[in-house]
Each structure stands twice: as structure tokens, then as C-alpha cells.
Amino acid sequence: MLLDVQDLRASLGGRPVLNGVSFSVMAGEFVGLIGPNGAGKSTLLRALLGLTPADGAIALGALAAAHVSARERARHMAYVAQEREIAWAVPVEMLVGLGRSPHRPSFASLALADRNAIDAAMRKMEVDSFRDRAATELSGGEKARVLIARALAQETPLLLADEPTSGLDPSHQITLMRLFADLATSGRSVVASLHDLGLAARWCTRLLLIDAGRIVADGPPDEVLTAQTLRDVYGVEAFFGETAGGLIVQPLDLVAVDTGARP
Ligand SMILES: Nc1ncnc2c1ncn2[C@@H]1O[C@H](COP(=O)(O)OP(=O)(O)OP(=O)(O)O)[C@@H](O)[C@H]1O
């Protein structure tokens, strides 16, 4: 077990945002965190990282998160934030290299293993062709890919990503989902918040549906993404299909509001 969360509760601005969230993540899972705007997905990810104060118990492997140093935590899990702002005009390669910090002494030069991890991460996210460019001068989607590459270079058992596909073109969305699925197949785990239910349905091994700070469904995509659930939680009607590659879910329209008026 890579991550265990019990009864997580958090408040922001005096309002409860997480209302008792419990789940575990095993090695080999690609978990999609889905739910409407404001449901608490980012807050949950940030609480797992210790960035948002929360009550409850978080265990990283066999250790209580509270007893794990920041450096050890960064060796256990990497994080891709929703915000893609890059403040420093450093070359892309250097930014991706920051992902190696938890693995090497401060100010030490890069070892061969670090170089290999950085190169592999840049290749996977297709950012190696602009490795020498200033990270501040990239497009939104390119910045996103560089920040994901930095997290990949960290080579952690667990990767947390907040809306990693937003701003990516369809080809790079699929590249990313395939990469996350491959990481899971190789025994690592990914927890990614996603708004694209089609991508979530097709690539995730498991979905956690959050609504108003609570997990309201947890299971394989075809069990979580039902017509009734999409009506209840998102207020949308959707098309469902089945292909050899998996489930297809495409939201089509808002649920018709019954005004009670007679025709
Ligand atoms: N710094 C803050 N202060 C007060 N309230 C906050 C703060 N950050 C988030 N919230 C509130 O907490 C709730 C959950 O926000 P969160 O960002 O976790 O939602 P989310 O599910 O990630 O949403 P989205 O899909 O829009 O990114 C929202 O109601 C939001 O307004």
C-alpha cells in the first residue's frame, strides 16, 4: 500500500472543504480524482502533500506522514500543481533537473542516474527539443509538459497531479494518459484530478468521485460513471459507448429541468 488516508477533514476560509475522506492507493493503480468545480479535489491533493492543514491520518507506505521529513516525502511522492506559473527564466533542462533534488546532496553535481532520469522524463513529455529555452518563454501547454517532466524526473513510487491534461492538445493528452497508465502497469501509482470524463473513463484503473468534500463513488470507471451518477453529481446527460479500448463517456447536455408546466 502506497498511501492510506483516514477521515481527512479540512476547512478553508472557515468553511469545511473536506468532510471525512478515506481511501487507500495500492501500487499499480491509476486513480482518477473526478468531481465538480469546488468539490475539494485540489484541497485533497494539497492536504496529502502537507500543503493544506488537515485533520485525520495519512500514511505513506508504513509511515505516518506526520513523521516523514520533507525530503523523504519528496522521494515518495511527486506533485504537479494546477497552477503552471513559472517564476524563474531558467532553461527547461535545469527546471526538470530540480526533480532530482530529493535524491542528491544539496549543491552536488548531477550523477549519471540523475542525468538519465532527466533525459528520460524530457523525452517522455516531448520537451527535449526545447531543453535550452527559458521555461518562462513557453506556451501554456509546453509549460505544463515541462512541469510534468520535472515530476517524472523525481522517480517516485507515487505521482499526484492536479488537472495535468488541461491545456494539452489531444495528442499530448493521450500521450500523458498512456504514460500514467504505463507507470501504473510498471508498479508505480498515479492519482490525477481530471475534468475530462472521456479520458478518465478510458485510461484510469479506478475513479474516486468527490462531491462537496466527500467521496461519493469509488471503483472501476464503468461502475462510477453511470448515467444516474452523472445526472446527480454533475447535472449532465451523457453518451456511453463501449470499444475494445474501453468505456467512452461524452457529456452531451444539461439535465432537462422539470418546471412542472403542463404541455
Ligand atoms: N484559499 C482558500 N480560501 C477559502 N476557500 C478556498 C480556498 N481555496 C479553495 N477554497 C474553496 O474550497 C473549495 C474546494 O476547492 P478546491 O480547489 O479543492 O476544489 P476543486 O474540486 O479542485 O475544484 P476545481 O475543479 O474548480 O479545480 C471551494 O469551494 C473553494 O472555493
Largest sheet: 6 strands, mixed
Identify the bound ligands: adenosine-5'-triphosphate
Mean pLDDT: 93
* Helix proportion range: 25-40%
Distance between the termini: 57 Å
Number of helices: 9
How many domains make up the 3D coordinates?
1
Q: For this structure, what is the CATH homologous superfamily? A: P-loop containing nucleotide triphosphate hydrolases
Structural class, from secondary structure content? Answer: alpha/beta
CATH top level class name: Alpha Beta
What key phrases describe this protein's structure?
single chain; 263 residues; alpha/beta; Rossmann fold; four-stranded antiparallel β-sheet; 32% helix
